[in-house]
# Entry
Amino acid sequence: WQRYTDINFEWHTVFENPSDRSALKGFLAPDSLTHPDNPLNAPNEKNEPGITLTIGTLDNGESRLLFSSKQIEYIRYWLFTVGYTEYLLPLPASSYLLTSTSLKSTEPITYTTPAQLKTAVKDIQKNNKRLKGTDKTLLGFRDMFALARTCWLERKGTWLSVDFEAWEYEHTVITEYGWSTVIWDGADQKTEVGHAIVEEHQKYQNSKYVANNQAHFLFGKSQVLRLKALRALLHDQIKKYTATGPLFLVFHDFNQDLSYLKQLQAPIDNLLYRLPDVPPTEGIYLVDTSSLFAALEGRSGETRGLSRMCQLLQLPDLDRFHNAGNDAHYTMLALKSMASGDVLDKQRATRWPGQ
# Structure
């Protein structure tokens, strides 16, 4: 990776030929980089035209705007091939270089207008200054957010959001299981939402401490299954999804739901609690929307409950929380809303201006 500021403001200064300096400066100008005719300009995952650069996060939580080494190579060869330079420009100085080992995470960011790109470095510097002295917990949440967003934008594997309901007087008595899946098939998403009621535990109804919405699944028809059949369903789901690529298990505040998966003997012995730096091709990974939302809000204290998080994200048609199927689906919608949005600090500024 090459730092944007070094490439934009320093690289051209080492060339003696004025026409070479002029050609490179012209190519790197914000008006040029964001222009539809620029060879680096390509539609992003939202089909928006623009220049896609990279936000790299250092170990101390600070960010840098980066070109990829591949983009730098392309710039050199393109300028020479079309005749704007008399020779192939030399590579930038090694001091501009950041390697993957020096970065905690990388994620794409697309600039569609010159104005966005002109203010990009200033915005990043402002956020870096704000992050000075930030506690390690919040820095960890920010890292999770960047990695989750990068994995989601890769459009690979299966994302399985799960939720359980249990009897309010004995939390080991599982009464419901809900799930919501997104399976990537190229650029397309295959989705499924489901809800199962444990047959032998139907007599254990909540009402005093937890709302009882067992009969109010909003996204299909509930199944009534024996506990043994529920265990088999879970086992089959995880085996099926891991056979075709990585599986991202999505929770909102994972501790209790993860204990239910283990209670039901789900095959998750190899579950990894941290997403890898590079989008994986196999394995099972934990993603927690409560941590992602804490990063988005910029707070590391008490995390938000599911319903409050969904309200703050302005998700539509929210109703009947504490039905396991509904809650699993709302958790998935929250994940999609955050992971498919802009990079963290830009997304926060757009969602809650002035915060």
Remarks:
- The radius of gyration is 24 Å.
- DSSP finds twelve helices and ten strands in the chain.
